[in-house]
From TrEMBL:
Pfam families: Ribosomal_L23 (PF00276). One of the early assembly proteins it binds 23S rRNA. One of the proteins that surrounds the polypeptide exit tunnel on the outside of the ribosome. Forms the main docking site for trigger factor binding to the ribosome. Belongs to the universal ribosomal protein uL23 family. This is Large ribosomal subunit protein uL23. InterPro entries: Nucleotide-bd_a/b_plait_sf, Ribosomal_uL23-like, Ribosomal_uL23/eL15/eS24_sf, Ribosomal_uL23_CS. GO terms for biological process: translation. Keywords: Ribonucleoprotein, Ribosomal protein, RNA-binding, rRNA-binding. PROSITE patterns: RIBOSOMAL_L23. One of its GO terms (cellular component) is ribosome. It comes from the Bacteria.
Length: 95
């Protein structure tokens, strides 16, 4: 198994993801090559919680222009992790 810190890149802190905290759902940007089993194991190991469900989606990068030169933001993968009843991640509590 890969290092869990290499799988979970960063948490997503948006208005929509903060509203999902009430349903015990947490959103992370994860490695493009990570699968649901690796994501589940990484969250359980790093935060000492029990994961109920993992949903993933690939987000394509947008085309941007900087000084009239075309470019593209990188593709990324998001994971919405649902925890079992009674489990919470303390990282999100103060936000």
């Amino acid at each position: 198994m890969k290092n869990p810190r290499d799988i979970l890149i960063k948490p997503v802190v948006t208005e929509k993801s903060m509203s999902m905290l009430e349903e015990n759902k947490y959103t992370f940007i994860v490695d493009l090559k990570a699968n649901k089993i690796e994501i589940r194991q990484a969250v359980e190991e790093l935060f000492n919680v029990k994961v109920d469900k993992v949903r993933t989606m690939r987000v394509k990068g947008k085309f941007k222009r900087v000084r009239n030169r075309p470019g593209k933001t990188p593709d990324r993968k998001k994971a919405i992790v649902t925890l079992k009843q009674g489990n919470k991640i303390q990282l999100f509590e103060g936000v």
